[in-house]
Amino acid sequence: MNLPTYITGSMQSQAYRTLREHVYTVLEQYELTPTYWSMLGSIIEAKDGVRQVEIARELHVKAPLITAMAKHLEDRNIVQIVQNQFDARAKLLALTPEGKKLIKQIETDLHSHLQQLLTGLTEDDMKTYHKVLTTIVANDAAIAKK
Fold it and tell me: For the chain, where are the alpha helices, taking DSSP H only?
């Protein structure tokens, strides 16, 4: 890295705070937090449902937190608990039809809200940004295993 770490660190902190503030602004309208949003992302990406323990592992949180969050989302008719077709003992979280509609609406609102912040960035820039973040997380996981 050629830039001094204090410059990149300061810029990273500023960007994080800015993005976080804008994301919270949108998610608060739906009575959600970024953790709920990440959980919902895990569920929708799984297509046929996902076990709560897998979400906990992915989000690096304890399973009881996911259980409580799942109950809250179930009470709001956003997620449902479904039977695992391969293991009758295992329960999966899946989106309800209302949950799928909500996800689309939030995604549209987030894109619209964040678009101004992303002005001047190309699709390739965004792919590179995602690759950088993914690499950092993967490298951290590799270091933790040592």
Answer: 5-29, 34-45, 52-59, 63-75, 97-115, 123-145
Q: How far apart are CA 74 and CA 80, in angstroms?
A: 6
Query: Residue 73: is its pLDDT beyond 90?
Result: yes
Report pLDDT digits (tens) over 85-117.
777 777 899 999 999 999 999 999 999 999 999
- For the chain, give the mean pLDDT: 92
Residues 96-104: contacts with CB under 8 Å, at least 24 apart: 99/40, 99/73, 100/44, 102/30, 102/78, 103/40, 103/44
Residue 30 backbone phi and psi in degrees, to 5: -105, 10
Closest CA to 69 of 19, 61, 9: 61
| Element containing residue 79 per DSSP (H, E) | strand 79-83
- Counting every residue written for the chain, the total comes to 146
Paired with 110 in beta bridges are: none
Q: What is the pTM of this model?
A: 0.84
